Predict the 3D structure of the following.
Amino acid sequence: MGVGAGFVAFSLGVWRESGRRIAIGAICWMVFGISMLTNGLWPMGHPMHGFYTIGIANIIAPAMSHIELSAWSANRRAYAVTALVSIASIVYLWLNLVGADPDGFRGLTQRVFSSINSLWPFLVALYLLRRRPNELTTHPAR
């Protein structure tokens, strides 16, 4: 449940940082966070575990957030990270849809993908937190 709460908090930060009234990327991260919260509330096998797989919204969350975060999207390395995470998401989905994810390795591939997917919010948060002190000193409060 802690991971879900973390993604919900991240979504609020992305929404605020984007400066948009409606930020699709932030909404996708929030939906993913809520689906992760439900994993801790209902047991595996229950339809509400994963909130009916609505967490699939995390596939477009990095790309949409990349577009909406002007400070992040101006960075060339950020583009490469976003592309890597997006491609990994599609590959993981494809492995599951065509049944190419081997039975004995399903838990492992899920954790590998989860690690890659969690890399994006970590790097964005790190980038934005490192950027903040400089911005505060160059634009003092009035």
Remarks:
- Residues 11 and 69 are 12 Å apart (CA to CA).
- The chain has a mean pLDDT of 87.
- Helices lie at 2-18, 24-41, 61-68, 70-73, 76-97, 106-138.
- The radius of gyration is 16 Å.
